[in-house]
């Protein structure tokens, strides 16, 4: 098929839909899935909970995507890209579930691109840009260990959509955690310099760990639907201890970063990094509202 | 009432859906890959149900488009593609025929997933696992070089016997 100009080739008139992997718009990731809210479950609470887990995955995925084209080796580039993709897929399902649970019919794009910083519900640990590869590994180790422990339990959720998202997520996150754990050992048990960087990475993330296990009122109300994060602390500590022992590292004793008037990520109170991250993540959608691609 | 004509059309629609190739592993059909859950026919519509491999699999949008296009070419104008999330896809869903086609294409097929006890998922601290045989020379003397490859569903190996690097579909 020939075109006189490049513009002609990409214009909608010539687009038979055959040449583009994604056509000109994204499809609903829950198409055909029964999204009825189970009896006795509060739809607004369920939506709020889906946003917490969905925002964690979305923001962590975005930070991982920023490593593309600056990874130390091609193998790590593909690993980080694949982990980012798994998390983005999980975020898309969870944000879409939020819009069906509260009846607002908001789409994944509405949530990702049209909310302000204060409306995001992710934990603060996923927000900062990584100083170096060891910093990324420390964050990914903590994030995937925590999330895997949550997802394993969430497979039993009375919401069948959440349970299904969790069941797929367990398989994927197991690979993410192993990847981060193996690199933690290589760096911690490597050279003096690599150990120093790994220690610095752990020190960077340590103040944000307590927040991961603080249950919100929404999680406490959603008995049988949500997982109370306080319950997964022992498993998290146990897994971290195994990895750190194998790496010859110690968990740094650093006080937790306090919230603002007791509020933190789950309340929409974020760190400075979050505003810059969203400015980039939302720039195209804000410059061209309603555009599809 | 189901007539012989309907039966024939349903079989034809199913045959077409089963034979659509996967965009990222084009040697496999959707049936080989084990993501096709169901094909049904109403008065006016073909409904195809799919289970995505990985949560973020970018091929899913293309698969939906391919299904609609190929069914339309056979006269089924109205096609709906539905997502089925549960049970989640596992590499065990890849058919014996699919495993043979993967090996023929130089990609080591996944082994059967071991039964796992309930409770916390155990850590794997050292990159290892049961032997993956080289799809080129058959040797079991292979080493994993990366936990992820060009797509989320594969990792990378190298054969120490014939020195060939190869991909392997991960057990998930």
Which radius of gyration of chain B do the C-alpha atoms yield? 19 Å
Mean pLDDT of chain B: 89
Morphology call of chain B: elongated
Give the CATH superfamily of the largest domain in chain B. Fe-S cluster assembly (FSCA)
State the fourth-level CATH superfamily of chain A.
Ferritin, core subunit, four-helix bundle
Give the class of chain B from helix and strand content and strand pairing: alpha/beta
CA distance, first residue to last residue of chain B: 41 Å
Helix content of chain A: 55-70%
Report the β-strand fraction of chain B as a percent range. 15-25%
Give the helix/strand layout:
The complex is a heterodimer of chains A (293) and B (172).
Chain A: H1 6-10, H2 43-65, H3 74-101, H4 108-113, H5 133-154, H6 160-188, H7 192-205, H8 217-221, H9 233-247, H10 272-281, H11 283-287
Chain B: H1 4-19, H2 30-33, E1 36-41, E2 46-50, H3 59-73, E3 79-83, H4 96-104, E4 107-108, E5 142-146, E6 154-159, E7 165-169
Parallel strand pairs in B: 2-3, 4-7
Antiparallel strand pairs in B: 1-2, 5-6, 6-7
Q: Could you please describe the fold and organization of this structure?
A:
With 293 residues, chain A is mostly helical. Chain A has a single domain (42-287), classed as Ferritin (Up-down Bundle), CATH 1.20.1260. Chain A is 55% helix and 0% strand. Chain A has 11 helices and no strands. Chain A has helices spanning 6-10, 43-65, 74-101, 108-113, 133-154, 160-188, 192-205, 217-221, 233-247, 272-281, 283-287. The longest helix of chain A is centred in the middle third of the chain and has 29 residues, at 160-188. Chain A is globular, with a radius of gyration of 20 Å. Chain A starts with 5 loop residues before the first helix and ends in a 6-residue tail after the last helix. By secondary structure, chain B is α/β, with parallel strands linked by helices. The mean pLDDT of chain B is 89. The N and C termini of chain B lie far apart (41 Å). Chain B has 2 domains: 4-83, Fe-S cluster assembly (FSCA) (GMP Synthetase, Chain A, domain 3, 2-Layer Sandwich), CATH 3.30.300.130; 107-112 and 129-169, no CATH class. In chain B, the strands form 2 sheets. In chain B, strands 4-7-6-5 form a 4-stranded mixed beta sheet. Chain B has a 3-stranded mixed beta sheet with strand order 1-2-3. Chain B has helices at 4-19, 30-33, 59-73, 96-104; strands at 36-41, 46-50, 79-83, 107-108, 142-146, 154-159, 165-169. In chain B, 26% of the residues lie in helices and 20% in strands. Chains A and B meet through α3, α5, α6 and α9 of A and α3 and β3 of B.
